[in-house]
Structures are given as structure tokens and as C-alpha cells.
Amino acid sequence: MQHFKTLNDPIYGFVEIPEGLISDLIEHPYYQRLRRVAQLGMAQYVYTGATHSRFAHTLGALHLMQQAVAILKRKSISISEEETEAVCVAILLHDLGHSPFSHSLEHTLLKMEHEIVSLALMEELNQQFGGKLSLAISIFKNEYPKKFLHQLVSGQLDMDRLDYLNRDSYYTGVSDGKVGSERIIKMLNVIDNELVVEFKGIYSIEKFLIARRLMYWQVYLHKAVVCASQMLCKIIERARWLSKKKQERWKNLSDNLVFFIENEVLESDLNKNVLEKFAALDDSDILAALKSFAQHQDKVIALLSEGLLKRKLLKIEIQDNQFKSDFIKTTRLHIMQRLDITSEDVDFLVFGGNQTNKAYDASKQQILILLNDDKVKPISEWREHNIQPKEVKKYFFCWPKL
Amino acid sequence: MQHFKTLNDPIYGFVEIPEGLISDLIEHPYYQRLRRVAQLGMAQYVYTGATHSRFAHTLGALHLMQQAVAILKRKSISISEEETEAVCVAILLHDLGHSPFSHSLEHTLLKMEHEIVSLALMEELNQQFGGKLSLAISIFKNEYPKKFLHQLVSGQLDMDRLDYLNRDSYYTGVSDGKVGSERIIKMLNVIDNELVVEFKGIYSIEKFLIARRLMYWQVYLHKAVVCASQMLCKIIERARWLSKKKQERWKNLSDNLVFFIENEVLESDLNKNVLEKFAALDDSDILAALKSFAQHQDKVIALLSEGLLKRKLLKIEIQDNQFKSDFIKTTRLHIMQRLDITSEDVDFLVFGGNQTNKAYDASKQQILILLNDDKVKPISEWREHNIQPKEVKKYFFCWPKL
Amino acid sequence: MQHFKTLNDPIYGFVEIPEGLISDLIEHPYYQRLRRVAQLGMAQYVYTGATHSRFAHTLGALHLMQQAVAILKRKSISISEEETEAVCVAILLHDLGHSPFSHSLEHTLLKMEHEIVSLALMEELNQQFGGKLSLAISIFKNEYPKKFLHQLVSGQLDMDRLDYLNRDSYYTGVSDGKVGSERIIKMLNVIDNELVVEFKGIYSIEKFLIARRLMYWQVYLHKAVVCASQMLCKIIERARWLSKKKQERWKNLSDNLVFFIENEVLESDLNKNVLEKFAALDDSDILAALKSFAQHQDKVIALLSEGLLKRKLLKIEIQDNQFKSDFIKTTRLHIMQRLDITSEDVDFLVFGGNQTNKAYDASKQQILILLNDDKVKPISEWREHNIQPKEVKKYFFCWPKL
Amino acid sequence: MQHFKTLNDPIYGFVEIPEGLISDLIEHPYYQRLRRVAQLGMAQYVYTGATHSRFAHTLGALHLMQQAVAILKRKSISISEEETEAVCVAILLHDLGHSPFSHSLEHTLLKMEHEIVSLALMEELNQQFGGKLSLAISIFKNEYPKKFLHQLVSGQLDMDRLDYLNRDSYYTGVSDGKVGSERIIKMLNVIDNELVVEFKGIYSIEKFLIARRLMYWQVYLHKAVVCASQMLCKIIERARWLSKKKQERWKNLSDNLVFFIENEVLESDLNKNVLEKFAALDDSDILAALKSFAQHQDKVIALLSEGLLKRKLLKIEIQDNQFKSDFIKTTRLHIMQRLDITSEDVDFLVFGGNQTNKAYDASKQQILILLNDDKVKPISEWREHNIQPKEVKKYFFCWPKL
User: Which of A342, A380, B64, B164 is 20–30 Å from A263 (CA)?
Assistant: First the structure.
């Protein structure tokens, strides 16, 4: 009989942690660090309740994975004990490589997808745990023949999404993101090694795709969230710029953070030493840095850092078309004059970019519906379901209110 | 017509912020700091979802205060516009003086109740806002003739408690703490300047008192929460001890934290300069310090700090009676030998204490019930209601697992 | 100061009933009857929890109307006390004319829309209440100049829909129907006497339209619900057929039900006498009739009635295209032979039809969005919002399983 | 592999129905009848949302039973497949013997506990199902050696209570009744064939006992609910009185209801014929009767019946002590004169009684707590837990408002 530890979770009531490998991984400092990484990064500036951590999210995803595996087994899908543990490990650790403040600093602190760092950390853990994570890694990399196991970890209907939509909805209060995860999981099945959804779950899938799209616009790509995230990235970039310019002596910055400011780390650099430094970083390193930067003599980094600490955000505009170059030019000049800064400096304070949102991309992997006659059809073939393949792109532009 | 800003809140949906003084206070850095102070301190080690901030709590209490004032006005209780604003300011700012990690560090970082610091900060803000907080301060100090306004801020049924029970319940997932705050507020009334509850709300009051008691045992005084909080206090105390012993050069600690480690601040010391230092501190200063301490050469502070970062807590036992002195002595000796530390050192690693829980103390201010004949009777006079005046005391004892 | 009675409601907590006209109307037997009319008719055969009444729904809609009026007044829209009461009366009474089991028997027991009967009953009440309902009736008929008042009662975003989506979602457990009614109401405004929604509510509106569409397919047009509703209609029609055929002596049917079986009532027949008979009918008359019919010697009515009482529904198929005439013919013949019934009889047991669902019909009244520059634009003009103007039509076909 | 049908439930999301015996029993007319029996009888007059049925409740209890059995099995408690099915059947059918409107008519329509009728119906079903219910009946009667199985069906912590507290709370909106049923079930265990609760569930048990007590006073024994239930009983009693007096020709009453009015049925009379009549009765027979009685020439039955249909309840007073005989006498005389009725008549309109509420009776079966050292202790031994053994008795008195 397997033993479990039980954790409290406000969404599922309880999450059961099987003793052994999974429990040991949770106690590992690489994983405990996720307690101090905000799931939604800067979104807490807009949704004050959204202070939840990557730790809580990944435990939630583990919980859903246990449910999904149990449902599939009951439908006579063959999943061994080893595979069960491995797919649970894969979902548990899939976010290990997130930077502080998650997506807000992704691609900036390290110039790569967080999944690459997650994989490097999983491989390091595999060393430490004597090879016990090999199967999990194989599933994570989609190299394992039972493709549906990878799809449960990372796919159109993975346990990651099912947890984060509900959790982000719960903590932000944006009820549009709530998804019938229990119902969707009950409708999962496997045909030809592919994850499919039984026909009567089709409305729940439609709802899920819509919920995801609405969460993108209302939370993840909310204009103030975009603005605060951009400010955070510009702060790190400015710190790098300063450290290149002059022999900078950072005050009160953690050595680990300084390392990632002073060094551009490539995928090939992710050795044990670098990973240990990364795994020591969390939101508190960034917050401590902001406090230090806010006192810095460099006007640019001080303005941005104080802005985040005191919630004086830059002004941001969002529109469907690109911003006019005239408008950009005038704004830059205006800020340069007002702040008495150079054209190189103003890049960190006046800047634009774009965001795209495509809830369901039929050109990539499709959601497959299992018909009552055991045939399978991609969801995009139903005329009456709104899966909106249109990609929506929006342009933003930020500058200081003076 | 008054204008409002609307904030999202997962519990109430929306919180309305009147523009003007209240909105300006919320934008003040003293208040923005509360975003970075965990409402439940160390409780997030047990309840992983409980990462909510004092910022969200005090905005929630403001929301309930607006409701309570509206209900009382509808019952023809005279409350002027000025009093409405003042009582809202008082509830908004009542937690301004919380240390990082709230109650976990209260009485340790500063050797005083947080309300004393809140009051000092309110008085400083009153300077900055040209006297506009005077009425709020008078209500907060219970010097204002309309006593019920103070009772709404701080009393047996104040808006603070109504918010924190629901909020802490929502974020921990301990549903026992959920309270019918809307119902209780609807039943409030005022007789002879005292807050009273209309008779048909008596079951809701009973439920409220029970919810509070259950939250104490299940969350606020949960043994692992007590243990982690004690560890945090011992870390600060050990840092003070070290700084007294030798000329300590703290690495990566913020100057503001160092100030409170090196100086014992008394109530009379709370001048503008000290308050500014205090208002610059939040959870991230403590977390950065833990990381620094975990690398310290002092075994004691390193063990405790690493313990908190990696969630390797001390062992804790809780019981109804005092721990036997024999057991204490043996444990101390054992740890001294195993860690090769002195008797002075071991005080920081092997220690005990007690916790008491008295959900309703009839000897202090009573909850008054308004009968249908307009008479008032304290709730303790109903035989069939469980208001449990018994105080329950429990003893705890902590030591390292080795 | 206005006085209120407070009713409990599981969705909103409390509903406040202003004393006076509204309170008196609620106590009137025409309104009390709605306690015994199931909001979702036959849907409780599929969603066993969905036993809620028209009484609870209309009180809920009243609650939302009070909120909407308060919000609009705060935005300086002029609404007098008389208009407030009238629009509340209109929403309270808008479902007065529902037959037993609501939509399941609509157009069958009386061959007209329920709104026509509601209006007739409101006019009768206006007599009884000395003309106090005249303004409410004018709003209900959309004859009052302030068009937005009618739109709050009956329009794309009326309080009826906002309540029923949430209530039907709560009682069925189909969470897809949940709608942010508080949020939508907060975003309402009035421009040129038309109800509009402020721009930042656009996601909530999209969510609302989707929720409504999903509820249609999952609940209101669920195949077993359609089947049971059709069976109920066929029972009434068969009873009429029998009563025409022979001098039928119904056993245990209420006189009032017999009247509506034996007489085809036209709009012009809705005099006080007929309305009193109608207002005496509720679900229990139908259930009592089913028990009687189940014992009837006529095979057809007995089979259908026993089927409903014991939940032995007809078989139903639903498809996108019309059923083939061959299939229909064969099925009819098969049933005629097996049950030894005539071709006239089989019409009541083997039958088809269709259902359409168009969540948002831009060709009728549009939902208007209020832009930040105070201009107004219909929602259908946003390319990225899914308002799906496509009408979806489905065909059903029912026959006995033998 | 066992197959399941899935039902929607607003509280648990889904209830799984194993195909075979359980599924067949659910389709049986005796069970389908529960769709038309209101779980809370007359409580819907006060809590307008509380229209849920015994059908939904017993399916919910079945769901919890499946969870409880799974948890116990995981803790290595031996429960065979047969025992699992039997204990599920027992909980599913435990309310089969409820009269229309459940407790409101219990002891009146049949002068016995509803469990006696449930047992008789189970035995009749056992005949129809060829003895397949024998084990379930043995558990229901507490004759089976594994006592804990009976305790799951009927005991201090049975699945009946866990479902009805949550369900009644959900449908009334009285949140005080909500209980952590999932948590309590997770804490169940078995020692010496007795159901016990693991120590860390002690707060949940306390909460459960309090929730039950609060639901009694706020819902089950709410004064208007008591009044309406008493009126219903008096109507049936008056009908009996009338039918004894004179050769009554009831108009539009169902034969089955007439049978139970004209015959006093004893336990020994519960033969197949009588049970079939009983199983044909539901709320609609009573409602149809009320409509008929409201037109009756007997003033007493007409007044009471019209009162229920139009919600003109008698006046009711509740107090801690017995009502003074003077007051009773005066009221009776007053009503006799005003209505011109006899002293025998007035007994049906002016009457009193009492209600008691004892949430936890330690003198009967105790709730046993499993300590960490595997010892067992009754919950009443904890001084700090409020289990309130005091019985509270209240007296009521009803009379017509004239």
C-alpha cells in the first residue's frame, strides 16, 4: 500500500503527495525555491490577490495528473507504476526553470525559454537521484513512445493549463478563467497513443479555449501588467548596461543576481555551478535589488525601480495598429529634454512592442474529439464551436508620465 | 457625485476606492509597502496557498467598512461625510505598523504591538497630509465620542476580523473560518453609541466566534506555523546577539534591516527618521537576510536560516501541560554535544513557550444583542449559545532534528 | 426612510423587498403560484438538482434590477422613485404568465407566448391595485419614452437573463453558465435613452454571450430535456384529442386543467375568469394528471404519462440534417404494429422537430459598447470577439424504445 | 472493469452510478418517486431556494459512501465487493419511506418513523430483485457483524448527515451548515469494527456538530417552517376527522391519498398492496389536495389549506418556557367566537407543542477519536471542544391572525 502526505490546497481541498521520489523531490531546495516565485509575476500590481506561487501551481498540476492517470487507467489504458510516477515527476518539475517573477522576467534574466532551464535542472536532479528521473525526462522531452504522457504534461489540454487557469482565476478573482477541469479530465481518453476527448466533453473544451483567451486579455496581457513586466525587464537590462559601462559596485545585490547581470548565460553554459546560482534566485533577490537601484545615481534605473516599488508605473497605450513613428519620436525627444538624458538612455524609458494571443492554433497540434463510433476528428471541424483560430496582435507603447 | 476607482478582489469581486484622501493614502509608499508583507507570515509553510498580503486584507476591510457605514446610515444612525471618511482611513491604515511577515516577527523586530507603530505612522502621515487624518486618529485611539466608530475599527466585531477570517479562510482553504460577513454587517445597529447586533443575527455571531477559534487552532497557532515563526524570531535575536558580540559586517543585508538589528527601538524612538527606515522594510529584506545568514560562519544562525529557506523546520511538540525540566535539560545537553555549541548558543535552538486562545473574552468588551423590544443584552447571557469563555493554553517545545 | 423585508437567496445571499406595492404583489396569489412552477421544466430529469422555481428566479431578477438602477443613478442617469418602482414591478411580474413547467408547456397549454399571458395578468392586477401598475405596464410594453428601462426588463442584457444564467448554472451544476452579473451591471450606462456597456466590460459581455449559448446546448436544448418536454406536450395534445373524440370523464384532474384541455384559449379570451383559472394551475396539476393518465385505458396517453413518471423516456436522436423520410416511415410502421395503434395515434409517439440556437442576433437589437471617447459602437464590430452570429439548427426525432 | 453512468450534481460535480443492481434500483419507480418529494418539506416557504428533492440527497449520500469506502479500503480495512455494493444500496434507499414533504408529514400521514417504511420497501424490493438486497438490509438493520458499515449509513457521522448538511446549506443559502465532508471522510478509520476519526480531524468534527446545531435552529426548526409543517399536519388530521364524521366525497383527491386519510396504517399493515399505494404518493398529491380542500365547505380545512397555498401562515410564537394556560384559553375562545367554530374545531387552528435540539448526545453512541498512539477516546473528553451536550427545548404556539 502506498503512503501519502496530504497538503492543503484552497482549490482542490487536498493534494496527495506519494511518499518516495515525489516527496523527496518536493523537499529538494530546487523545488522549495518555487515558494518564493510569484506565479503571475507583475500581475499582482493589478490583481492584488494574485500573490500565489509556482510552488502551489505545480502541486496543483500534480494533483490533476494523478486524477487524469486514474481516469485513463479505469478506461483500460495501460499505464505502469513507473510511468505514473514519471509523468507525475515531469509535471511537478516542469516549471523549475522559471526566473523570479515567472514570465515577467522570462527571456531577460536568461535569454531562453524557461523549459530549457527546467530540463537542465531536471537533468542535474537526475544525477543527484541516481538516474531515477530518466523516464520523466524522456516524457518531458517527448521522446517516450506513449505520446499521450507528454501531452498530459505539455499539450493543448495539459494538466499545466487546467491548473493555472483555475488557480489564476481563483487568485485574481477573474471568474471567466474558471474551467471544469474535473469534467474535462473525466472525458479524456487515448486513441493510437494520442490524448483525445470524448464527444460529450466538447462544450467543456470550447469553454476551456474561451476561458484561456479571456484570461490572456484580462490578466496575462492586461496593459498595466505588460507595463510593469516591461519595466522590470528594462531594469535588468539597464543594470547590465551599467555594469558594462563602468566598474559597477552593486550595493546589497545578492552575488547570484550579480552573476546573471554581469554574464550573458547561454544554453551551453547551464552547468551545475550556474544552475546552483540560478536555483538560489527568487523574487526576494529582485525586490532587494529594486530597493538598491531606487537609490542609484543613474536616473534611469532609479526612476524605473522606484516606479515599481511605489507603483508609479509608466504610461502605456495599447492599440490594434503600430504606433506612428512621429509620435514615438516626439515622445522620446520630450523625455530626453525633461529628464536631461541621452538618446541611448531613453531607450529604457520610452519603448514599444507587441503581444499576440491565439487561444487555439489549429496549425499546431489539434485537440482531437472521440466520436461515439470510435472515430476521431479534430475540434476545428465543428462549425458551431467557437475556437477562433484568428491570431490577435496588439501593439503597446510606454513612456514616463512627467 | 463622488468618483471611485475599482479594484478587483477575489473575495468581494470589487472594492471601490473613493478618489481623494483615501485614494492618495493608498498610493503612498507607506501603504504600497503592505503589498510585500505576508498577511499570515510563516503560515504559508503549512498552507501553501496562503501568500496573501496585508495590502489585500486592509483593502478588504475598507470595503466592509463602506458597507457597514451604509447599513448604519440606512438605519438612521447619524454618520457625517467626514466621519465616514475618517473611519475608512482608520481601518485602511490600522495595519501600517506590521513588521515583515506580520505577526511572525511582531514583538521581535520592534518590541511593541504593531498598533503602536501604525499609530506613529498615521501621525507622520497626518503631518504630510496637512492634518487631514486627525479625526481618523481620534477614532483609532478611541478618543472620539461616537464610540461605535472605534468599535468598527477595533472591537469584538470589527471589520478587521470580518475580513481576515474570510480572507485567511479563502487563501488557506480552511473553510471553517468562513464567516457570513454580509449577514453580520446587515444586522449591525447602534444603541447609546455602542455597536450592537440585532437579535436575529445571533446564530451568525455564534458562528463567527467559533470560526475565529477554529482558525486559531488550525492556522494561526498550527504547530508548524508556530515553529517556523519562532525560528524566524530566533534568527533575528541571534543576529542581534552576534552584532553585540563582535563587530559584525553583514553581507547583503539592507541598511534598514541592519538598523533594527543593531538598535533596540523603543516607542519613544519612533521619529520620522526611524519610521522611514521601518517603512522601507518588507518580507524581501528578511528573505535576503536569510540567504546571507545561511552562509554565515555562525552555526546557529546558519542552521536556522537554512532551515527556513529549505523548509527543514525544527521538531516541535505541543501539549496541554508544561514540559518536564528533565526532558528539557536532556535535550539541551544532547544538542550542545551534537553541534558542539555552548549553553548560551543552545537557547536559540532548543526552546519552549506557550500559546493561548480565547475566542471570546466576556470580561473585556462584550458583544451586545439588540432584542426585539429595543433592550440590549450581552451575548454571554444566552445559555444555548456556545461562546466558550474558557481560555485554552498550550505549551510548545522546539529542538533540531539531528 | 424606506423599509425592507429581507429574503434569503442562495445566490445573492439576501434579496431586499421594499415594503408597499412590491411587497403586496409578492403576497398576491398570482405571484405565490410561481413557487410551484419549475423554472426549468423537464430539465430536472437530466439535472436532478435543477428544481428551482420561477418564484426564486423573479425575486433574483428583482434584486439585480435594484442594483442596476442604483448603479445608473450613481452615474447621474435620471430615474425617479416612481420609475424605480415601476421597472422593479415589471421585472418581478414578467414571468407571471408561465404555464406549469415553464417553457416545457409554453405554446401548448396556451397557444401563445408566456409574455402575452404575463401582460394580461399584470393588467388584471392593475385593476385590483387601482392603477398602480400602469407605469410598469407601459415599460413592459416598451411604450415608455425612457427605452432603457424596457431594455433592463427585456433586451440583450436584461436582468432576466443575468439572473437565469447564474441561477440555472447554480442549480444544474453546469458551471459554464455562470456570468459576472455584478461586473456587467457595474458597466451599464445610458446614452440617448439606450442601455450601453462601458468598454472595459467587453470581455464580460463576450463571456455572457458564450455562457448563454453553452447553456442552451447543455441544458435548455439537452436532448433528454427536449424529449421529456415533447412528451409532456404530446400528453396534453393527446388529452385534447381524447376529449374531442369522446365524452371523456377525467378522473382526478383539476377543473382548471380540464378547462384548458377542453378549450383552446385565444389571446382575446384572456378575461378575468380565464385568468383566474390559469392562475390556479401549477406543476402539481400536471403531475396529478400524469398519474391519472398513466392509468388511462388509452394506450398512447398511458405510455407517455407512465414514461414521465418513471423516467422511461422515448428514444431521441439529434442531428444536423433532417431525418430521412424512409427512416421516419419505417419507424412509424414498426411502432404501429408493435403497439397495435393507428396512423393517427402514432403521431403522438413518433415525431420530430427542430431547435435553433442563436446566442446573439445582431440583426435584432444590438449590444452597444460605450467607448472611452463617449462614442457608441455595436459589439459585432469587434473582430476579436466571438459573438457568433451564426444560427445553429438541429433536428430531433423521438420514438418509443420497445 | 466496472461501468458507470455519470449524473450531474451541483455540489459534487458528478455522481457515479455503477451499472447493475444500483443502477436498476435507481430506475425503479419506488426510487424515481423521490424526485417529487421535497427534501426540506415546508422549509421552501422560508428559504425559497430550498426546493431540492430526496432524490438528489440520496444520490449525494451514495456518492459520499463511495468515497468513504474507497478511503477505508486504502487504509487496509477489509470491505468486499459485496459489502461495498450493499452499503451503497443501504444509503441509497434509506429515505425511501419518506412521506410527501419528508419530515413535515412524518408521523402524521403514517404514524411511524420513516425508517420503518424504508425498511418495508427495501424488503419488498428484495423480493422483486430475488434476494439481492439481503446484505444491504442486514447492514441497514445493524445486524451485520461489521458494525462500521451500519455506522456509515446511520450514526453520528453517517453519509446521510454529511450530504444533507451540505446540500441543505447549498439550497437554503445558510452557509453555516457547510461541512468539510471531504476532509471528514479522509479522516475516517475503523478500530474494532467501529468507525473512528483520526485525531487531526477533531476540528472538522467540532465544526460538523456546530453546523448541524445551527442548521436545526436556522432551518429545520425555524419558526415559520415549524408553523407551515404543523399546518400541513393539521390539514391531514382535519381531513381524517371529516372523513370519520360524515361520508365524505373528496373531490380531486388521488385514491392513494384518500386511502391513507381514511385508514390508520400500522407497521403490521405494510403489505405489498399498502406499500404500492404509499409509493404512488408524492408532493403533488398533497398540493392537489390543498387546492381541493381550499374550496371545501369546512371552514377549518379551507382556512388552513388556503393559508398554505397563498402563504398566509398562522401566527407562531416560540419561547423557552411553556405558554401560560390563560393565554391559550383566551386565544382559543377568541378564535372560536371570531370564526364561529366549536371547541373541537379550534384544536386544529390553535395549538402548541415543543421542539428539542441536541446536536450531540454523548449518552447514545459516541464519536470516537483515534489518537496518534492508536488508542481511541470519545470526543466528549476534550475540554476545549464545544460539543454542547445540553439539550435545548423550545415551545411554540400557533393561532390564526384575524
Answer: A342
What is the model's pLDDT at position A230?
97
Cell 382556512 sits on residue: D303
The answer to whether position A36 is within a domain reads yes
Q: Are the beta carbons of D175 and B176 separated by less than 8 Å?
A: no
Whether residue C91 sits in one domain with residue C166: yes
Q: How far apart are CA D274 and CA D253, in angstroms?
A: 17
- Alpha-carbon span B378 to B359, nearest angstrom: 15
Give pLDDT, residue D200. Answer: 87
Between A and D, how many CB-CB pairs are < 8 A?
18
**Are C258 and C215 in a shared domain?**
no
C285:D288 CB<8 A: yes
The stretch A58-86 carries a mean pLDDT of 97
D236 lies in some domain: no
Of C13, C76, C182, the CB nearest to B1: C76
Total count of domains within chain D: 1
Q: Could you tell me which chain C residue has the CA closest to the CA of D170?
A: C10
Residues ≥6 apart with Cβ < 8 Å to B188: B68, B71, B72, B157, B195, B196, B197, B198
Comparing CB atoms, the residue among B13, B182, B186 nearest residue C182 is B13
Q: Which of A173, A191, A222 is the last residue of a domain?
A: A222
**Chain D residues closer than 8 Å to A18 by CB:** none
In whole numbers, what is the pLDDT of chain D averaged over residues?
A: 93
Q: Which residue of A has its CA nearest to D182?
A: A13
Would you say residue A363 lies in a domain?
Answer: no
ipTM exceeds 0.90: yes
Identify the band that residue D252 occupies on the pLDDT scale cut at 50, 70 and 90.
confident
Residues A124 and A262 in one domain: no
How close, in Å, is residue B392 to chain D by CA atoms?
7
For C112-166, what is each residue's pLDDT tens digit?
Answer: 999 999 999 999 999 999 999 999 999 999 999 999 999 999 999 999 999 999 9
Query: How many angstroms away from the CA of C386 is the closest CA of chain A?
Result: 7
Whole-prediction pTM = 0.93
Assign B258 to helix, strand or coil.
helix
Q: How many Å separate Cα C76 from the centre of its chain?
A: 33
* Contacts (Cβ under 8 Å, ≥6 apart) of A332: A343, A346, A350
Tens-place pLDDT, residues A347-391:
999 999 998 876 666 667 889 999 988 899 998 887 666 665 567
- The closest CB to that of C47, out of D8, D252, D310, belongs to D8
Q: Chain B: residue nearest C76 by CA?
A: B1
Tell me which residue range forms the domain holding C228.
223-355
Nearest to C175 among A180, A218, A388 (CB): A180
Q: Which chains touch B (3 or more CB pairs under 8 A)?
A: A, C, D
Question: Residue B402: pLDDT above 90?
Answer: no
Amino acid of residue C304: L
B76 vs C contacts (CB less than 8 Å): 1
Q: Are residues A49 and B172, on separate chains, in Cβ contact within 8 Å?
A: no
CA distances from D164 to C152, C352, D159 (A): 37, 41, 8
pLDDT of B218: 92
| D389 assigned to some structural domain | no
**CA dihedral in degrees (B97, B99, B105, B111; nearest 10)?**
-50
Q: Is the Cβ pair A6, D186 closer than 8 Å?
A: yes
- Euclidean distance between CA atoms D102 and D109, whole angstroms: 10
Distance from CA of D266 to the nearest CA of C (A): 26
State yes or no: pLDDT of B382 exceeds 80.
no
Which pLDDT band holds residue B388 (cuts at 50, 70, 90)?
low
Identify the CA nearest to D31 among candidates D5, D62, D8: D62
Nearest to C214 among A203, A388, A390 (CB): A203
B1-46 per-position pLDDT tens digit: 568 898 999 999 999 999 999 999 999 999 999 999 999 999 999 9
Chain B, chain D: beta-carbon pairs less than 8 Å apart: 39
For residues A230 and A211, membership in a common domain is answered with no
